[in-house]
Amino acid sequence: MRVMKKLLAAFAFSIAACAQPAPPADIVYGADPQLPPPAGGGLPTINVPRAVGWPDGAAPTAPEGFVVTRYAEGLAHPRWIYTLPNGDVLVAESSSTPSRGGGIEGWIANMMMRRGGAPDFSADRITLLRDSDKDGDVDERHVFAENLNQPFGMVLVGGYFYVGSTDAVVRFPYAEGATRVEGAGEVVLELPYNEGANGHWTRNLIAREDGAKIYVAVGSVSNVGDQGMEIEEGRAAIWEMNPDGSEARIFASGLRNPVGMGWSGGDANALWVAVNERDMLGDNLVPDYMTSVQDGAFYGWPYYYWGANRDERVEIPPNVRLREPIAPDYALGAHTASLGLFFYHFDGIPERYWNGAFIGQHGSWNRSELVGYRVAFVPFTNGRPSGEAEDFLTGFLNARGEAQGRPVGVAMDQTGALLVADDSGNIVWRVAYPEAAAPLATQP
User: CA–CA separation, 346 vs 342, rounded Å?
Assistant: First the structure.
């Protein structure tokens, strides 16, 4: 069996080297991506760069005028960031856990995670970083919460601190300035969960601006319903609930792996989400995307993609009557693993970035040529995309094609500088524009 595994690994990783040159990645960006015919079949293309970490003194590259520093190091797979109203920065440290079962597919998934830098354990904690004098340097660090179940999303509403654990939304009483919350927290909403094979495990949270509703992003178990649709009940969706967990309902569905959420602002202020789309249809299918989220909308997964494009790998059961799928608003490239989404509603960096979207692209594994591995920026005007995606933070891949880091969550500190969670490098990066630095009076 050990020999068979080695042979399978060698063959799977060789597929990327033998694949035909990838079409240009930028054809599947923007509001009207050029979708090629589906390709693939047999074993998937597997191309996972080896995680090597950052050399001493090295950092990602930002546009001219920005300064990139290590806000916090030595974290355990930092995934998501949330800034409290008093300026304290919370970092969720959590990871995928090895799949139990799943045959060859499960074994390959575990192998990819290890090669890509994911640990075999999840720290299951939230760390608090405090910059008391607002100089951009952390001067206090505390364990804010621990013994959680793969924590990810965080939000403060009405005196309670909410955490999106993989199996539930839990909350803790919170007093301003607290450096720790105690206990296991109160479960306000149990979420769909499959022990041992939970697939897309992250659960992000965001509150409506008046605090009356909380939204919960729940990813699918599988790529395209590979284990049957019964196990996908309640998943691949954004849930809406009251702060006490009551009146919970599916707000939007057919979203394979919704992760980052944000309010676009402007005249068309709406909830937007970044979605990690399906694999194994070729180098340029299916594009990840960000989209405004319509109440009651169906975005196609697993039966359709990008509107009414049919995924023929998935049968539509005769007893299932589907709503018409809605096409997303803006494609972010196939296999980029677009996870983070942050709208910048402040003035601490140059005006061209105001109100635009920053997207943490964790990076590809199912593409013959690597894509993602950057923080991208898309300008917005009046709450709608108004330009092409561009590089903002790069250099996560070194000259040998190895992963020094992989960006996920993007947030903002109390001075208006951007913060980026790098789960492979175990660092939170701070990206500041010194000429515009000004302390933030209140969080938007």
Answer: 12
- pLDDT for 321 equals 83
Residue 160 DSSP code: E
Q: In CATH, what number does 47-436 get?
A: 2.120.10.30
220-235: pLDDT as tens digits: 999 999 999 999 999 9
The C-alpha angle 301, 305, 307, rounded to 5 degrees, equals 110
What does the buried/exposed string (b/e) look like for 256-271 if buried means 16 or more CB atoms within 10 Å of the residue's CB?
Answer: bbbbbbbbbbeeeebb
Count CB-CB contacts under 10 A for residue 343: 24
Which tokens hold the place of 422?
């790098």
The gap from C-alpha 175 to its chain's centroid, in whole angstroms, comes to 28
Give the integer Cα–Cα distance in Å for 329 and 121. 36
CB contact at 8 A, 122 and 77: yes
Cα(167)–Cα(203) distance, rounded to whole angstroms?
Answer: 8
CB 168 within 8 A of CB 219: no
Q: What is the mean pLDDT of residues 22-38?
A: 87
Count of Cβ atoms closer than 10 Å to residue 204 Cβ: 28
Position 423 pLDDT exceeds 80: yes
The pLDDT > 90 percentage for the chain reads 80
What are the boundaries of each domain within the chain?
A: 47-436
Closest listed residue to residue 411, CA positions, set 92, 53, 188? 92
pLDDT of res. 44: 77
* pLDDT computed for residue 238 by the predictor: 98
Lowest mean pLDDT among 14-28, 113-127, 205-219, 348-362: 14-28
Distance CA 99, CA 96 (A): 9
Whole-angstrom distance, CA of residue 206 vs CA of residue 155: 6
- What is the rounded CA–CA span in Å between residue 200 and residue 255? 12
For residue 221, give the DSSP letter: S
Handedness of CA 291, 91, 414, 211 (dihedral sign): positive
In this structure, is the dihedral angle defined by the CA atoms of residues 327, 328, 333 and 337, taken in order, positive or negative? negative
Mean pLDDT of 126-131: 98
37/19 Cα distance (integer angstroms): 16
Strands 67-72 and 78-83, how do they pair? unpaired
Grouping H, G, I as helix, E, B as strand and the rest as coil, residue 108 is helix
User: Which pLDDT value is given to residue 117?
Assistant: 61
Q: Is the distance from CB of 336 to CB of 364 less than 8 angstroms?
A: yes
Q: Is the pLDDT of residue 74 over 60?
A: yes
